[in-house]
Amino acid sequence: MATTRKLLTLAMVRQGENILLGFKKKGFGQGKWNGFGGKVEMGETICQATIRELEEESGLIAKAMDKVAILEFEFLNDPVILEVHVYDIVKYEGEPIESDEMVPQWFPVNDIPYEKMWLDDLIWYPEYLKGSKFKAYFLYEGFDKILKHSISPVQELPL
Ligand SMILES: Nc1[nH]c(=O)nc2c1ncn2[C@H]1C[C@H](O)[C@@H](COP(=O)(O)OP(=O)(O)OP(=O)(O)O)O1
């Protein structure tokens, strides 16, 4: 089966012992808490898409960011591979505000609502919170079962 790749962004906003998550009101991942992001559009770089999606969904304006991970998601019997580029938002301006898509809320890093998040978050958030850079792969069956996964630290990630 020929595969197609979809490029997505995910912005992680952490302030010391707290992390900002958004409750997704609609679209892919509806009903789950997640970082902020979406599809990279034509003519846009991954960085530009990250900044745009963060502002659209949370109201925050990224001023400095650092790529921390590339996550690949495959779904059994689905030719589409999601390639999610994850950025740590090191500096931003503004205050979180509710958007059409997301309700933002701060959570202590030791009390992340994993039971209402993607299953894979339980696997890779700890790596992110440690400050590691990594690549990870997840094979899902439906949306509630991970059949296979791998996670490996890397020194550098492509921009
Ligand atoms: N398994 C997963 N774990 C995770 O933590 N984040 C994921 C994930 N799968 C996707 N994401 C993120 C990437 C991206 O930020 C977001 C999905 O964005 P999309 O733009 O595809 O969503 P929508 O269906 O709302 O898109 P639009 O139709 O463009 O509004 O969820």
Shape: globular
> How many discrete structural domains?
1
Tally the helices.
Answer: 2
Any idea what the CATH architecture is?
Alpha-Beta Complex
Separation, N- and C-terminal Cα atoms: 29 Å
Structural class: mainly beta
Strand content: over 45%
Family: Belongs to the Nudix hydrolase family.
GO biological process, one term: DNA protection
Cofactor: Mg(2+)
Organism: Diploptera punctata (Pacific beetle cockroach)
Please tell me about this protein's structure.
There is one protein chain. This protein has 159 residues and is mainly beta. The protein has one domain (4-153): Nucleoside Triphosphate Pyrophosphohydrolase (Alpha-Beta Complex), CATH 3.90.79.10. The chain has two helices and eight strands; from the N terminus they run E-E-E-H-E-E-E-H-E-E. Strands 1, 2, 3, 4, 5, 6, 7 and 8 form an eight-stranded mixed sheet that branches. Bound molecules: the ligand Nc1[nH]c(=O)nc2c1ncn2[C@H]1C[C@H](O)[C@@H](COP(=O)(O)OP(=O)(O)OP(=O)(O)O)O1. The ligand Nc1[nH]c(=O)nc2c1ncn2[C@H]1C[C@H](O)[C@@H](COP(=O)(O)OP(=O)(O)OP(=O)(O)O)O1 binds next to strand 1 and strand 5. The site of the ligand Nc1[nH]c(=O)nc2c1ncn2[C@H]1C[C@H](O)[C@@H](COP(=O)(O)OP(=O)(O)OP(=O)(O)O)O1 has 17 residues, from strand 1 and strand 5. Keywords: Hydrolase, Magnesium, Metal-binding. Belongs to the Nudix hydrolase family.
Tags for this entry?
mainly beta; globular; Nucleoside Triphosphate Pyrophosphohydrolase; 159 residues; binds the ligand Nc1[nH]c(=O)nc2c1ncn2[C@H]1C[C@H](O)[C@@H](COP(=O)(O)OP(=O)(O)OP(=O)(O)O)O1
